[in-house]
Amino acid sequence: MSGSDLQAFVLDELRIVQDKISSDDVDSWRGFFDDKEIPYEEERCRDHLIGLLRQGSDMIYYEPEAHVADDKRVDIACTVENLQLPIEIKGQWHDELWIAADNQLAKHYTVDWQAENRGIYLVLWFGDQPKNKALKSPGRGQKHPETASELCEMLKVRSQAVSDGRVIIVVFDLER
């Protein structure tokens, strides 16, 4: 298996998880929200996501806060044999939402020898939320995305790592 194979495999697993979140019989979406339907913080969402991913193929090991190059920690490491694909997660409210694919994932995590210069930037889209969980502005005078797919496209256009083919952006649609 190569790094690109692992990346493609994990993307398929993420698509399955997105489908479960959208409409499974145990309401998996609830793991991303508190009792008032306010989104949890990124770490709690990450842990729930790992639980959902671990229900899939047992070929990949999903580890939270894994240690990688330069004494950094990646949100999720997807490991098989000697390969380790990093996934960086940001909630729509995060200050570095618009730059983390390049400035964090590509710069610090995909450079690890096990990553083969590949990674996944996963953004959690919750739609219209209270101020502390509201979508981080793309910048003055910039159009704000209105859907998860619009956000995904806007993030792709801004990322050099995506243009280089090293990073793939996934936006989970968790809007209720």
Q: How does this structure look, described?
A:
This protein is an alpha/beta fold and 176 residues long. The chain has 5 helices and 5 strands, in the order ααβββαβααβ. Strands 1-2-3-4-5 form a 5-stranded mixed β-sheet, sandwiched between helices. The radius of gyration is 15 Å and the shape is globular.
Topology:
Elements: H1 3-23, H2 42-53, E1 61-68, E2 72-80, E3 83-91, H3 100-109, E4 119-125, H4 148-158, H5 160-163, E5 167-173
Parallel strand pairs: 3-4, 4-5
Antiparallel strand pairs: 1-2, 2-3
Number of helices: 5
Radius of gyration: 15 Å
Instruction: Find the count of extended strands (DSSP E, 2+ residues).
Output: 5
Strand arrangement, major sheet: 1-2-3-4-5
Structural class: alpha/beta
**How far apart are the first and last residues' alpha carbons, in Å?**
37 Å
- Subunit organisation of the chains: single chain
Query: What value does the average pLDDT take?
Result: 95
What are the segments in which pLDDT stays under 50 over at least 5 consecutive residues?
A: none
> How is the main sheet built?
5 strands, mixed
Order of helices and strands: HHEEEHEHHE
The proportion of strand residues reads: 15-25%
Please estimate the helix content.
Answer: 25-40%
- Give the overall shape: globular
